[in-house]
Every structure is written in structure tokens, then in C-alpha cells.
Amino acid sequence: MRLFKMNKKINWKYILGELLLIFLGINLAIWFNNWNSSLAMDKNKETALERIEEEVKNNQQELSQARQTNQLFLESFQSYQHLFRKDLNTLLSTPKEFSALQKKYPDFFDLTDSIPHEGGTYYYRGSTSADLALSELSEIAWGTTRSMNITNEFNYDCLYQLEGVYNLQRQVTAQNKLLTDAILNNDMGNLTRVLVVMGQLEAQLLEDYEELLADIKNCR
Fold first, then answer.
1. Could you tell me the pTM of the whole model?
2. What span, in angstroms and rounded, lies between the C-alpha atoms of 86 and 91?
3. Is the Cα dihedral 94, 95, 96, 102 positive or negative?
4. N or C end of the chain, less CB within 10 A?
């Protein structure tokens, strides 16, 4: 005995329509969420690149100024080097050669007195001035970009170039420590060797900075 009976047929069109609406709603929600995430990532990427570009420009200026100072000292020392007698406070030279060096590098050797020697030469006594600069190169913007995984959005060439620039920058920073140690130990031989190596690295880094600033638009 039946207690009731169905008096209507199942409306499959209605059910399928409802399922389709639910399916579309879910997919639209997922698409909208992905679209929002993509917009947010694009914004973060643009901000990161702007900060990296600013950081590189600041580092470029800092390095250029420090390199100019250090290379002038190295050039001065190398020009005077053959005149030093045992220490850096006494030179043996003709008045003409000494005057020419003093004119070219007026701040390197501070003359106190001179004593005639033989063959028209003089002992010049004084003190040398080591005017050196340690560049402070930042990588805060780059480190922040990596910690936020924004680098995943960069193409391979861009990422490779950025990694190369900051790796070379760390090498220059490492040379700063060696330079400091040489100054503290008053080791002029090691000081000049560090300055030569540092000069080569700095020249390459300045060139890489320039290329990166020209190419960074390709990262966007």
C-alpha cells in the first residue's frame, strides 16, 4: 500500500541549470580571485623593480665616488713609490721630479724639510696621507624582493642579470674588509694589492650597474 505517490516528473532541465549556475559561480569566483592575486603580484613586482632600480642608482653613485678617491690614492702611491727610502716618510728625489709630483698630487705627501744629498738630489721628509673611502653598497631592496618570492615573476634573463650584479657587489664589499685590515695594520704593500683588485672589481660592477639600469625595463 502506497502512502503517497509522486505527482510530478523530475525537472532535469531545472537541476542541470542550477548545477550549471553553481559551476559558473565557482569558476567565476576562482577566476576573480586569481585576477585579484595577479593584480596584486603585478603591483608588488612593479614596486620591487622600482626599489631595486633606486637602490642600484644609489649604489652606483656611492661606488663611483669611493672608487675615484681610492684610485687617486693608488695612482699617487705608485707614482711616489720608487722615491721612498725604507719608509713612507722619506723620499730621495731631484727638486724637479719632486716638484712635479707635488703639483700633480698635492695632498699625498706633506713636506716638513729637505736635506741635500749627492748628484743634485735631496732627502725630503714629511708624511703621507691615506685618503681612502669605503663604499657602503645596499642590497635591502634585492633581499626584500627575494624574501617575498617576487623573483618568481621575473624572466630568466632578468633574474640572471640581477643575481650577477648583486653577487659581484658582495665581492666588492668583501674587499672593503681587506682594505680596512690593511689600513689598521699599516701594511702598504697589501693595501696597494687590495686596491688594484678592488679597482678591477669596481670597474666591472659599475659597467654591470649601467647595463642593468638600461635593461631593467625588460623585467617588467
1. 0.78
2. 9
3. positive
4. N
- For residue 124, being part of any structural domain is answered with yes
What are the DSSP E strand ranges found in 19-164? Answer: 90-93, 109-116, 122-128
Please check whether residue 204 lies inside any domain of the structure: yes
Q: Which three cell numbers stand for residue 78?
A: 705608485
pLDDT in the model for residue 164: 97
The pLDDT tens digits of the residues spanning 21-41 come to 677 667 666 665 555 555 556
| Domain hosting residue 211, numbered range | 46-219
Task: Say which amino acid occupies 25.
Answer: G
In-domain check, residue 207: yes
Residue with grid cell 690614492, as numbered in its chain: 73
Q: How many residues does the chain have?
A: 220
Domain count, the chain: 1
Asked, for residue 30, whether it belongs to a domain, the answer is no
